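hey
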């Protein structure tokens, strides 16, 4: 990924606020903002569980 640095002008975390995990207006004081113009990814359907290789 080739990210660029950004700055917050306007932002909301509605779901996080509803869950009590963020305060209204907290998004305006983000620690860092990284932007990605385009990201390619693959989605495999239908979804299924993947067995863990960890212990």
């Amino acid at each position: 990924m080739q990210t660029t640095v950004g700055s917050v002008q306007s932002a909301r975390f509605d779901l996080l606020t509803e869950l009590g995990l963020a305060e209204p207006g907290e998004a305006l004081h983000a620690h860092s903002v990284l932007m990605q113009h385009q990201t390619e990814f693959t989605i495999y359907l239908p979804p299924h569980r993947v067995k863990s290789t960890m212990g």
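The helical segments are 14-18. The chain has a mean pLDDT of 85.
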